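Continuing from the previous page...

OK, I double-checked the sequence for ATP-dependent RNA helicase against my notes and this is the correct one:
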Amino acid sequence: VEAQAKQIEALSLSVPDDDGGAEGPPLLDDSDDSQIQAVTSGGTVYESATTFEDVKLTPELLKGLHDEMGFSRPSKIQAITLPMILTPPYRDLVAQAHNGSGKTTCFVLGMLSRVDPNRKMPQAICICPTRELAQQNKSVLMRMGKFTGITCACATPPAQKDYMPISKMAPVTDQVVIGTSGTLTKWITHKKLATREIKILVFDEADHMLAEEGFKTDSLRIMKDIQNSAGGCQVTFLVIDYF
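Thanks. Re-ran it with the corrected sequence; updated structure tokens here:
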């Protein structure tokens, strides 16, 4: 795992706790911005965002953030990582943050921002360690992207009552696909999920997935397939503990 982490052109960040909260549980405001700083990577200067408008999100995404999600401004991890995820040359990123810090918003916004809603094909993939986390992340993405017209498929093992042979499954046309590594591997292997147009690949709770052999094998196979077929794909690892 350590060797794989070193192979990607990645910047590792450790983000302090964010204790904020106002106007309901989803809001991750924090009045103390003293630990939010400009970060440099590979000659590129990334200035931390003090507002969501700073990262030049579309009006549709801003409406989703403010009206649907109730967010007013970025949490610490969002302020630091969003400029890195959304600014060319779209470098690979490893970011560490605890649950509740706002890391889901980081990669969901990253995927929604990189996707062209007019192209009906997969352009962003998020790999999760569990079915429940994949479904939760899809729910957040659909709320945040409510006004964008972007669609999302959830690639998880189907319930027995919903089972369909993969041979009868239609090719995926959703712009975003969120799922578990095993199901994603099956979809790719059976040519139901094309990877040639993938712009961003996200590993949520990557430390858990890459620590377990089964998850690790499938996850690295997916990453290799995407990097071979979609040159220039940005890879983002979100971790709770370092590799």
